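Problem 3 from the worked examples.
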Amino acid sequence: MKTFSRFFLAVFLISLYYVGDPAAGRAAADQLEEFQQEQNKARQQAEINQARQREQLDQLQRDQQLQRSQQQLDQLKQQESLRSDGEQQQQQLNQTQQRLDQLKNEQQLNRLKTELEINRLQREQNPSRQKEQLRQLQIEQQMNLLKDQQNKLQLQQDLNRQLSPLGRPSR
């Protein structure tokens, strides 16, 4: 509401100056346009910063989940090393470890891609293009988050199946 009243006041003053002095009216109009451009830039920068913060939070949550999965897998490996008849189980654990490592690598790659994209967005000069690209980045972030959740769920289910034969309750 405050911005609207400033805008209305600026338009009113411009119209007064324009009637009395056309050059002053143009100067006031230029100032108003510059003010609006600065507001747009500030708003777009805030949106970019929010996207970066969301991505960092999502990445932290992904890392924590992967760390929990890694701990469970390490625990399974340790238990299996104590058993002599676990060759097939050990092979499954190794495969699960490979999948977990692959997930970690994919997340690292996605993190770097997102950071590069955010840096590129900050250099974009066209505000409407920057806004569209930011929207696209947010969609990509959401898709990556859903994909990661699906992969982690599958990995957790595999870990739970591997825990069950060891006499441990599945979670």
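Problem 4, a separate protein:
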Amino acid sequence: MRRVDDAAIRAHADVRFQSEYHYAVFEYWRSAKVLRYLERAGVTRLGHVLDAGCGGGGMCVSFGEEAPSVVGIDLSDRFRDAGNRLAAEKGVTNVTFAQADGARLPFPDAHFETVMSHAVIEHVARPFDYLCEIHRVTRPGGRVFLQTAPWLSPHGAHLPKLKIPVPIHLLLGRRLAFNLMRWLATHAPGALNVPPSGSSFLTMARAGRIKEDDLLYRVTVRNLRDNIRKAGFRILREDLYVSGTVRRLAPAVARQVPAIPFVRDVLVGNMEYVLERVR
């Protein structure tokens, strides 16, 4: 999937938590942005690809249309029905899935030319071990795409938006904010500014299930850079995307934000990297 269709991505995002299959379809459409980013970064030959945290498997299916082979792993088996179903629907036969721990990958050294990690590392309890394992299975000179967000930013906090736009995680601390959002999803869902199937807080509350906090790594620009470097990667490209509100209201300030510690961890909503294994 190389055609970036923003309207389709938004439409699928609004229903992505309806089921694992819906999430896989959303991942499939969203992956066009990842392919575009890699192409602009000069990564035109994907080779054998690993998705090190594939979720429902939608990005694997999309990359399977572009690469000789793709392997997707995830700690849970979310892909078992969703990813395999989507691959069959798209006629993609070169994708395989495996249930595995990203910090203990079941692959030999230097096995993949390209490794993908999209919205994964913040959910990993041992992020440095995870990056070291990705380094181990990437071929020398291979490329790694890494995407995440600082945990202090609204996007990186992984909390649904309120109808009254207040950075509740900064005011209360994230633990209290998480518990508040979980309570609101159950008792006052109208206070949340998200579609009914656009947040796992809402879908799990309706199903009578308790949502666990899966934000395990408190990402900052500095600690992520340090982990990348210590794991043996070289950063070929780093893009820190400042909040659209800040860009609109104070463009001169927005240009300075990526260089200001702490401020960037609040106002940068998306971080994308292309890494190279150099040893």
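Solution to problem 4. The two ends are 32 Å apart (CA to CA). The chain has a mean pLDDT of 96.
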